[in-house]
Specification:
Distance between the termini: 77 Å
Protein name: Integral membrane protein
InterPro entries: DUF6350
Pfam families: DUF6350 (PF19877)
Largest sheet: 4 strands, antiparallel
Low-confidence stretches: 1-10
Keywords: Membrane, Transmembrane, Transmembrane helix
Strand order of the largest sheet: 3-1-2-7
Length: about 425
């Protein structure tokens, strides 16, 4: 037997591969912040900042991109008569997609390189690395004006990275059984028939609620795009007043693109009738708007002003979302609660009414919880004066959204048999 002339190279340990994958993701996501900050500094945009100060600012931007709050220190005369501190907090949905998608890619690569019972090693190494990077960035980016708690820097960035890792690994594995070593289908098969029916019914209700949130968010994004297009002249005027040059305008545009999904969530809250706030004491609803002084962000030029004559028409968005959710549930064919009622009563008019009302209420509750979660995550605070309350109130949005989606789901499930009627054969 002929021996190999070269020694075989040792395979890279899985934990080390996880370190490499998410370390690479952290570096690429950092470039999204470092390059714009460097461009502004090189063009003289930060006249009073040294290179070290600009680097700390970039580190703070990387933390904010992951949803880490910053503690701001305001000198006397800025936020009031005396020096004060405030909390800047925002989760920029558009920017946080960058590390999430990079982690999704890393999750696929790690799942491809691991056996089922070894994947945890790669995931653990990756998440520990991201936590260490977050803590290091929080420590090194601390300045007299702003700082991030080390615990927040270590624990919050791995949340989005972990979501990307798990979904990417699941996408590569194709099934949770291959990912975690547990066959959920076999586990469900060992339960009773009634439990399977109840589980299928509950799962379909949750998916219908998720569909309602998704449709409402999509229609709200279209409405936001129309508002931006109609008010483009006012937005361009704000750009001219900022006068930050090419680098400054690019940074402002990048910031707005990162916050556009947040603004779409605020538009969804606006369409429910609950509205949102742009500062303490302000209220922006489909019927009227009351705002105070606002930051010079060009996209805010698309805000509705005064009394809107046809603003109530926006209330149709959550109702349409509920209608599609109710129709989808009818097509899914998992209304086992209606089947259970039929077995216990021969009054079809009563069982059909009760099951439809119960279904509409449950879909509304599921959608309301989802809408409240979106509203809560989209809120922001600049930590200064009245700008500590930015965004919708989650409880109010969830309540209004649940009611309107329930009305739509009732209509959608009621007209489902008419929409799904098979054509007559000649």
């Amino acid at each position: 037997m002929k021996l190999p002339t070269k020694p075989r190279s040792l395979p890279m340990p899985l934990w080390l591969q996880g370190v490499f994958e998410l370390g690479q993701a952290a570096l690429i996501s950092a470039l999204l912040v470092v390059l714009p900050v460097a461009a502004v500094w090189l063009t003289g945009g930060f006249a009073d900042r040294t290179a070290e100060s600009a680097a700390r600012l970039a580190g703070q931007g990387w933390l904010v991109m992951h949803g880490v709050p910053l503690v701001l220190q305001f000198p006397a005369g800025v936020a009031g008569a005396e020096a004060s501190a405030g909390l800047l907090h925002v989760i920029p949905f558009g920017l946080i997609l960058v590390p999430l998608l990079l982690a999704w890619r890393a999750g696929r690569r790690l799942a491809r390189a691991s056996y089922t019972d070894q994947l945890w090693q790669a995931l653990l190494g990756a998440l520990v690395t991201y936590a260490a990077i977050g803590a290091a960035v929080a420590y090194m980016s601390t300045s007299a004006d702003a700082s991030a708690p080390l615990a927040a820097g270590a624990l919050i960035p791995p949340v989005s990275a972990g979501m990307g890792l798990i979904t990417g690994a699941y996408r590569e594995a194709g099934a949770w059984s291959r990912l975690v070593g547990v066959d959920f289908a076999a586990w469900v098969g060992r339960t009773s028939q009634h439990s399977r029916w109840a589980g299928s019914y509950a799962w379909s209700v949750l998916r219908s609620g998720f569909l309602a949130v998704l449709v409402a968010a999509g229609l709200s994004a279209v409405l936001l795009a129309v508002a931006i297009g109609l008010n483009w002249a006012g937005i361009a005027a704000i750009y001219e007043r900022i006068d930050g040059g090419i680098a400054g305008a690019s940074v402002v545009t990048l910031l707005q693109l990162g916050l556009l999904p947040n603004f779409a969530a605020w538009t969804m809250a606006w369409s429910t009738g609950a509205g949102f706030a742009l500062g303490t004491g302000s209220s922006i609803t489909p019927l009227a708007s009351t705002v105070g002084p606002l930051p010079a962000l060009p996209v805010l030029g698309a805000l509705p002003a005064g009394i809107l004559e046809y603003g109530y028409a926006a209330l149709a968005i959550p109702v349409v979302a509920g209608l599609l959710a109710g129709w989808w549930f009818f097509r899914e064919g998992e209304n086992h609660f209606d089947e259970w009622l039929v077995l216990h009563s021969k009054q079809r008019w009563l069982t059909a009414t009760a099951s439809t009302l119960a279904l509409a209420g449950l879909i509304g509750i599921a959608a309301g919880l989802g809408g409240a979660a979106v509203a809560a995550l989209s809120r922001a605070s600049l930590g200064l004066g009245r700008l500590t309350e930015l965004g919708p109130d989650p409880l109010t949005v969830g309540l209004w959204f649940a009611i309107e989606v329930a009305v739509g789901a009732l209509l959608g499930h009621a007209v489902g048999p008419l929409l799904e009627r098979e054509p007559r054969r000649r």
